[in-house]
Design brief:
The protein is mostly beta strands. The protein has three helices and twelve strands; from the N terminus they run H-E-E-E-E-E-H-E-H-E-E-E-E-E-E.
């Protein structure tokens, strides 16, 4: 188990070498997340990238956030369009998640999608989607923290298994494991 830096008798942290980025990635890999593809842009410059650093922030106003590497190919397209769609992926979309995960990813035109009322690309077979207006961007080290205000949303309308990411691999939830009783 990795230890937390202890406080000195004066309430200050003892100086230790910085945390190794690979070690941080390995430890954070123990946190299961959903898998999303963020889409943005118009018909000529539509782009997409796989993201698992997504979370809801607020219900009033309806806000969500995700983190994007500062050098991501999606970032300039998003900054021009000022809007994005968070597409929640299904089990059957694992291949799609990997296609959009690399630096030289698939082109949005190669996958089934349609345009929202505001002209943003929505993955047609996604489990659910949130269309957002880019509200804020914050510094997050080598990443940008992007906050969006949800302006539209929808679901596939049928039961489908969600895709999750755990310990560096795409996975699905196990139907055979009973949910714990709530007390």
């Amino acid at each position: 188990m990795t230890s937390v830096q202890p406080l000195s008798q004066h309430g200050r942290h003892h100086l230790r070498p910085p945390v190794d980025g690979r070690a941080l990635r390995t430890v954070c890999g123990n946190f299961a997340t959903g898998v999303t593809v963020i889409t943005t842009g118009g018909p000529e410059d539509g782009a997409a990238t796989t993201v698992n650093s997504f979370t809801s922030v607020s219900l009033q106003p309806p806000l969500v956030l995700f983190c994007l590497h500062r050098r991501s190919r999606l970032r300039p397209v998003l900054q021009r369009s000022r809007g994005f769609v968070v597409n929640f992926l299904t089990r059957s979309q694992e291949g799609l998640a990997w296609k959009f995960a690399g630096r030289d990813s698939a082109q949005l035109a190669e996958v089934p999608h349609h345009r929202s009322a505001n002209g943003l690309p929505v993955l047609t077979e996604a489990l659910a989607f949130l269309e957002c207006r880019l509200a804020e961007e914050y510094d997050g080290g080598d990443h940008a923290i992007l906050v969006g205000e949800v302006t539209a949303l929808g679901t596939l309308g049928e039961e489908a298994e969600p895709l999750v990411f755990f310990k560096g691999a795409m996975r699905v939830l196990d139907d055979d494991v009973p949910a714990p009783a709530r007390g």
